[in-house]
């Protein structure tokens, strides 16, 4: 084989490689997830979800907590049944963290914390959810969403005022 034919084959291989790379890049860019806007009905679902969360957290502030997980789970089911892909995904994630034994407060605190992380993300992405504020307690390294500006820590019964309002 002479050097011209080797050089020609190399150029042909490089040309095929470049074209393949361009085709791959095109497909990668076209597979980007479609951004679906949150309409008024989606915002209303999230309002209901955050109100349900408020009710659950208020129960944890009581002397003998008895949160209504059934009612909260029904609200989550509305998210799962939503026509919005992100709301469905968030709803499915939250369902995995609903406590199975509400009397086991220690495991409930951990599950609530995971739920709060998802709710904080929802609040940041879905418009018109400013009624609920994010709080953070450095002692337990956990966040939560509640109305108002007063710290009411649902994680630490002995330190209900431990935490800060996050901006």
TrEMBL record:
Origin, by domain of life?
Bacteria
Entry protein name: DUF3347 domain-containing protein
Species this protein is from: Leptospira biflexa serovar Patoc (strain Patoc 1 / ATCC 23582 / Paris)
């Amino acid at each position: 084989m002479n050097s011209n034919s080797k050089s020609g084959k190399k150029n042909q291989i490089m040309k095929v490689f470049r074209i393949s790379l361009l085709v791959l890049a095109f497909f990668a860019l076209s597979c980007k997830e479609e951004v679906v806007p949150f309409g008024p009905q989606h915002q209303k679902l999230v309002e209901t979800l955050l109100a349900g969360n408020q009710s659950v957290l208020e129960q944890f502030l009581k002397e003998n907590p008895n949160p209504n997980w059934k009612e909260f789970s029904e609200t989550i089911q509305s998210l799962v049944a939503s026509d919005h892909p992100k709301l469905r995904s968030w709803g499915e994630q939250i369902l995995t963290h609903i406590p199975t034994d509400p009397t086991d407060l220690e495991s409930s605190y951990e599950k609530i914390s995971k739920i709060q992380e998802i709710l904080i993300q929802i609040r940041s992405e879905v418009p018109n959810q400013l009624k609920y504020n994010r709080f953070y307690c450095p002692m337990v390294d956990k966040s939560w969403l509640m109305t108002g500006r007063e710290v009411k820590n649902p994680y630490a019964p002995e330190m209900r005022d431990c935490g800060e309002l996050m901006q």
